[in-house]
Amino acid sequence: MSDSRPIQAPHSERLERNYRPAAQYDDIFTYIFRRTFPDLNIDPEFFELNEGLRLSQGALGGDIYYKLREMSDEMRAFFEADPEDKTDDSIKGRQILLDMEELITKRLRQRRLSKPPGDDLGQ
Question: Based on the domain organization, do 36 and 78 belong to the same domain?
Fold first, then answer.
């Protein structure tokens, strides 16, 4: 049986290849994230995000769902355009994520207020 995992460089070579001084990052979150996950692939993360949105479409409503999917695609484009955080595109992508959270919270709050007491959002 052959092992299909990719061959990785020794730890010291990976650190050297992926190292950027902290001063080159815009915020501490990005610095820690990039140092912790230097080879992270965003495909699974966006698949999970979009599947979660799809599964929540009923609770969110079609109009909000389609808006969130557009925002997801836009956010991904920003992250792909700036994988090493050298431009402001990754900052724009993170802002879209915050905007998405706000939109979801606002929509669910509207639903909660419009339902009779004791009626659950999942029913």
Answer: no
C-alpha to C-alpha distance for 62 and 107, rounded to whole angstroms: 11
User: Does any domain span residue 3?
Assistant: no
Sign of CA dihedral 58, 60, 61, 65: negative
Complete DSSP assignment for 43-94: HHHHHHHHHHHHHTHHHH-HHHHHHHHHHHHHHHHHHHH-TTS-STHHHHHH
For residues 74 and 22, membership in a common domain is answered with no
Return per-residue pLDDT of the chain as tens, 123 residues: 455 555 444 444 444 444 444 445 455 655 666 666 666 677 878 888 899 999 999 888 999 999 999 999 999 999 888 887 788 898 899 999 999 999 999 998 888 888 766 655 554
pTM of the model: 0.61
120 within a domain of the structure (yes/no): no
Instruction: Please check whether residue 121 is in contact with residue 109, taking contact to mean a CB–CB distance below 8 angstroms.
Output: no
